[in-house]
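Lecture 7, part B: from sequences to assemblies.

Below are the input chains for today's worked example.
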Amino acid sequence: MGISRVFDIARRSLSVYQKALDVTANNVANSSNTSYSRQEAVLQASTPQTFGGFVWGTGVTISEIVRARDTYVDTQVRTNYQKQGDSNLQSDILSQIEELLTEPSEDGLGNYITEFLDSWSELGVNPSSTTLRNNVLDTANQLSTKIQTLYDSLSEIKASTVSDFNNSIVTLNDDLEQIQVLNQQIYTASVSGASANDLMDQRDELLDEISSIANVTISYDDGGSALVSIGGILAADRTSSTEFTSSISNGELQLVTAEDGQKAVINSGELNALSTMYSDKIPEYLSDIDEVVTTLMNSVNELHSAGYSNTDPTQTGINFFSSYSSGTLTVNEEIVNNANMIAASADGTEGNGDIANDISGLVSEDLIDGQTISEKYSELVNNIASEKSSQEGLGEAYDLVVSQLEEQRSSVSGVSLDDEMTNMIIYQRSYDASAQLITTANEMLQTLIDMV
Amino acid sequence: MRISDAMISANYMKNLNKSREKITRLEEMISTEKKILAPSDDPSGTAKVINMQTKLTNASIYQENIDSSLSVISEALSSMELMTDTTSDILTLLTDAEDSTLSSSELESIADQIDEMLSSLLDYANQEYDGKYLFGGTSTSTAPFAYSSDGLSVVTQTDITGTQYARITEGILQQINIPGSEIFSTIITQSGNLNSTSAVGTASTSTTSVYDADGTEYTLNVTYTKTAANTYSMTYDVLDSDSNSILTSAPAAQTFVFDSSTGKLKSVDGSTPDEISISIDGTSIEFNLDATTLKETSSTSTISCSANQETNIFNTLISIRDTLANGDNITDAQKEAVQSFYDNLVNKTSELGNIENQINNIDTLLTERVTNLTEQMSNITDADLTELYVDLETQNTILEMTYEMAAMVLPKSLLDYL
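Predicted structure of the full complex, as structure tokens:
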């Protein structure tokens, strides 16, 4: 064995530690990149040689550069991303709806209904007063404007869920396409033996992103390709990705494939939040408002049409409201033109306010499911508020779980500068030592040469 | 556990955010003084507040109703008190006029006084408030009483029987007027019972006297003929002293239906029973028939009629005036008619006074209710400022500590020591 062996071992060490420092440098450079997974050069003694009955070490080599990643935590995080996305988005939309209600305040629909009915009780005391007749008309107009505003705003929110749904699908389709491309690149890299760590980080980031959009299921095949399926439909693998689109059928907002309209079963993620809002919640709130307003209209009309107007000659059989549909409550045109057409009198005399008094009594009558109109309305507000409060609570709980899981993930995959600096010193020292070996071997060789 | 740099900053940001969020919320609560900023902060509390808000809005309107009712009532009361005073003066004059030694000129001067008092009474009866006649029942735009075209008698121009109501609580519709008919008109009250077991076709008749403006007596016959179970057809006839009908045509029969279980009068011609206003064409006979207390029982039919006052006060006074002007002494019947008007008026005045008291009581209750509701609502929605300030102080300290901790820990790494 010759001195050249020392040169060999030392030379190999130099390149190994240089490479190891390379990895450290990459880690340090990515220390602020949250989607980056820390990499580690795995050092291994290179294959020894047997010579003259001895086993001679041949120095160090890098067996592989590994990506520090806990796939179990990944699965957990993604499952919770779905629920988190669902609850938080529902809570956001419900908070918009809640703002529309402007409760508790004097500007809520409940108070407008009360003020409308109460204006009749004032008219009842003084049925021939034009001021009070106009007051009834004013409160009716305010009520109908309030209903219209509320209904329109709710419908706008409903419409915006569809555009949000479509925007999310655009992101989803984009991500799925990229995942397919990355699958392909990772496969090619791994076949050629190259490291695909950074590509895998990119893919993980995309998988995280689509997890908050919909209920995705992710598995991996033997070639390391991620197989993504959404609600029972294969969405991406190494060779293809599916394009999705939205469809509305029977009032239900659905996620379907663009090619053949196959329906994906959505039960989690932001898409589920939007679909639930569009298909169930908002229609339910709208129909509750319809029920309240229709009951009010019919009850008022029933009493009103039995009364007599304050005109000469008196008229009877007049409806106060002419129609209600989709948030538009219309006061009878004849009454709008002439407040004396309000039928406050039960017998045609101008001082009789029995009908007005009866209408004002509706305020405490159980008209809907054993509840007064105001109680029914407060139940609706209570429903929305409770739903919001429960989704908000769920969202907060998932936020907590997700942040703990992300911490766990960061604990495994995140870069620690202290670690990297320590490694840097170690590698630098090893590099120094290897260089010193070369110097020493060189001096030894010089000594030999000098001897000749 | 391995700690990466990202964990330290993420944790720091998370805690900082939480602290900030709490402070923002506290600040909003303090500046609005409300602890419910959105319904979801307290869903059931919000629902309660909405219901209380309804009750509060109601209460404030009911109090307004009470205010306007009370002003009408007090106006009516003062008119009635003036009428009482005037009538009392008339009674004194009538006592004076009974003195048979009075000369015809003395009687004439009493007649002049009576005439003046008559016109004051008529003014009070036609009293307006806020453009509406107080004693016209629900006919408020036309003066209830006026001289007939020949100027000889006072006639009722409108239906003055209507009762006005005001809603003064969710459940109470309070009567707020005394219909003119109860003060000035003759109300013939039909009382007794009809036999529910009698055969179809059985007729029951009751009889009483009615008078025209001149005081001439007529006989009123009211007949109920059974037409079906619980159903009767009512007709009436007015006869002169020779028992001849003075009606030019028979009045349309009205259908009375009684409740089969309670025996109470359920409807008249399909509507809720009320006083029936009757005036005979071509004469000055006017009266209201009140059959609302008539019942149907299984015992033998006994029905009778009674009048609150037999004649109209104005026409009575006209006849008294004319009698005195002619130099004649007034009759006992004439004086009795004025006395019965006076008694009835005093009764009705105290009835309206009672109504006023009742409304005042409700007003007190409503004021109490508003106070209670406001307090309850405040308990649910209003923030406890002291508590909030303490919380804010605590959160501020936590925030400061977070900052200091960040300044201590975040910039540190091994690099500082290499």
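Note for the exam: Chain B touches chain A through 58 residues (CB under 8 Å). Keep this in mind when comparing with the next example.
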